């Protein structure tokens, strides 16, 4: 198991952002993390990436506990935060070099060249980050998450705000990466989950309302499209 | 930590921040030392750098907060702090890298003023008769004072996402810790403990180093002062309620 989440709860003041959720992801699986805005997707991902501590419950990434072994988790995890924060005044290669230095990546220059090739930043590699268009920034964010060749990738809304062509390219990249890595990505677009992932966890108001293989969802709700199933699940609130 | 240091240091010099701060600093010290008659070495007639060491703490009070105000406030505002915090770096490595980067800029700036020392040395009669010991002590005092102000500045930068708030808070804290305790100690009601109260302030320890005697108590004071504020910063970042 690459990712294990058990009874995870996060309370902000009075409000429960996530309420004792449990799920897991196997090695080499692409897991879609779905839910409407404010459902608790980002909170879960921030806990998994050791950015904020959970209130209670257990989360493990690649066999390491996020609460007690955060450094190990961070070494084995590539994380693309929501809104993709980047240092806009750095050059593309400089920002990748910075992240590579933090991870003490060996053969830094060739690794950077390799990763630039992989995410398709070749033509933009000599620009400043601030000059890149949204799609290329997103690719750079993913490149930063991948530079140390992590076993697990957590992508928080990797495709938000992209144009259709960029969307297709990025999805192809994620599918390609999913052959060797465990990936959790969040989205609120059902079609995206349909083309990308094997399994979907649907979360609503901090609770998991569904955790199943996508094709099973369709057989369970005959005659409905995935999107309708999604709406039905989150409106019934299970 | 080295990676954070290099990133911070190069960002100072790839943006205008460092050039403007250093430029302003040099112009101001130049004016005070050689042009303004009240503090000018030429009008004073003594071969000392006393007026330099008297004015620099007050310049640092504004320039250091200007350098440090963005260090954490900007990272938090842009969300790039999440980028750093989810990498294999402890909070202390992030803070330490930033602290050392700011300190390097300050040390570099101070090194540029050594030219004043050689000027005064040359101008003195007989040539070369200056109190080098006291000057060396004062430089060490300035580096330690700079470190204390930087730790205040980084702390102020961690408290708010707004750089103006960070700057104002840092200027106030720097001013108060430098000369606030001295002024407080002259209060009538505190006169029984005035030596103790003024020994809490930076000014007393800075002047003591300026006499050319490196007293371990003064050095220890400055080091614990910086450590205190860096630890406070770490506590603020560790809370992560944002």
From TrEMBL, chain A:
CDD domains: ABC_DR_subfamily_A. SUPFAM superfamilies: P-loop containing nucleoside triphosphate hydrolases (SSF52540). It holds the Pfam family ABC_tran. Keywords: ATP-binding, Nucleotide-binding, Transport. PROSITE patterns: ABC_TRANSPORTER_2. GO terms for molecular function: ATP binding; ATP hydrolysis activity. Residues 3-230 form the ABC transporter domain. PANTHER family: ABC TRANSPORTER, ATP-BINDING PROTEIN. Belongs to the ABC transporter superfamily. This is ABC-2 type transport system ATP-binding protein. The lineage of its organism: Bacteria, Pseudomonadati, Bacteroidota, Sphingobacteriia, Sphingobacteriales.
UniProtKB/TrEMBL annotation, chain B:
The keyword S-adenosyl-L-methionine does not apply. It is found in: Cell membrane. It comes from the Bacteria. It is a multi-pass membrane protein. Its main location: membrane. The chain crosses the membrane at residues 12-35, 55-73, 94-118, 138-157, 164-181, 219-237. GO terms for molecular function: ABC-type transporter activity. It holds the Pfam family ABC2_membrane_3. Residues 50-181 form the ABC-2 type transporter transmembrane domain. InterPro entries: ABC-2_transporter_component, ABC2_TM, Motility-assoc_ABC_perm_GldF. GO terms for cellular component: plasma membrane. The keyword Iron does not apply. Keywords: Cell membrane, Membrane, Transmembrane, Transmembrane helix. PANTHER family: MEMBRANE COMPONENT OF ABC TRANSPORTER YHHJ-RELATED, MULTIDRUG ABC TRANSPORTER PERMEASE YBHS-RELATED. This is ABC-2 type transport system permease protein. It comes from Arcticibacter pallidicorallinus. The lineage of its organism: Bacteria, Pseudomonadati, Bacteroidota, Sphingobacteriia, Sphingobacteriales.
């Amino acid at each position: 198991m690459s990712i294990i989440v058990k009874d995870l709860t996060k309370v902000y003041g009075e409000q429960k952002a996530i309420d004792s959720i449990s799920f897991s992801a196997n090695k080499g699986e692409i897991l879609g993390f779905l839910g409407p805005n404010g459902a608790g997707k980002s909170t879960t991902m921030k806990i998994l990436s050791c950015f904020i501590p959970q209130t209670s419950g257990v989360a493990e990434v690649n066999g390491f506990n996020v609460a007690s072994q955060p450094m190990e988790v961070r070494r084995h995890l590539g994380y693309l935060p929501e809104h993709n924060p980047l240092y806009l005044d750095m050059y593309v290669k400089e920002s990748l070099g910075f992240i590579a230095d933090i991870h003490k990546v060996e053969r830094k220059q060739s690794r950077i060249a390799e990763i630039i090739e992989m995410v398709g930043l070749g033509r933009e590699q000599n620009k400043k980050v601030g000059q890149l268009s949204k799609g290329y920034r997103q690719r750079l964010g993913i490149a930063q998450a991948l530079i140390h060749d992590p076993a697990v990738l957590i992508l928080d809304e990797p495709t938000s705000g992209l144009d259709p062509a960029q969307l297709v390219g990025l999805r192809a990249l994620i599918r390609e990466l999913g052959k060797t890595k465990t990936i959790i990505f969040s989205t609120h677009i059902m079609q995206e989950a349909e083309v990308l992932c094997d399994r979907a966890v649907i979360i609503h108001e901090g609770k998991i309302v569904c955790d199943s293989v996508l094709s099973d969802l369709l057989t369970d709700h005959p005659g409905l499209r995935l999107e309708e199933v999604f709406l039905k699940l989150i409106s019934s609130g299970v | 930590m080295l990676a954070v240091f290099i990133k911070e240091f190069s960002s100072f010099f790839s943006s205008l921040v460092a050039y403007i701060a250093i430029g302003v600093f040099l112009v101001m010290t130049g004016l005070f030392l050689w042009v303004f008659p009240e503090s000018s070495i030429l009008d004073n007639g003594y071969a000392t750098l006393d007026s330099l060491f008297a004015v620099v703490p007050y310049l640092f009070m504004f320039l250091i907060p200007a350098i440090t105000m963005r260090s954490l406030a900007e990272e938090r505002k842009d969300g790039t702090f999440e980028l750093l915090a989810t990498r294999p770096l402890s909070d202390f490595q992030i803070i330490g890298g930033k602290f050392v980067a700011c300190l390097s800029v300050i040390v570099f700036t101070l090194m540029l003023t050594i030219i004043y020392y050689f000027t005064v040395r040359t101008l003195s009669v007989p040539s070369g008769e200056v109190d080098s010991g006291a000057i060396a002590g004062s430089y060490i005092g300035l580096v330690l004072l700079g470190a204390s102000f930087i730790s205040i500045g980084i702390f102020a930068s961690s408290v708010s996402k707004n750089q103006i708030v960070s700057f104002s808070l840092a200027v106030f804290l720097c001013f108060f810790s430098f000369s606030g305790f001295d002024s407080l100690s002259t209060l009538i009601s505190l006169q029984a403990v005035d030596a103790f109260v003024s020994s809490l302030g930076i000014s007393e320890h800075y002047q003591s180093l300026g006499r050319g005697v490196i007293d371990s108590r003064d050095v220890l004071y400055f080091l614990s002062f910086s450590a205190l504020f860096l630890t406070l910063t770490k506590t603020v970042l560790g809370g992560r309620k944002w």
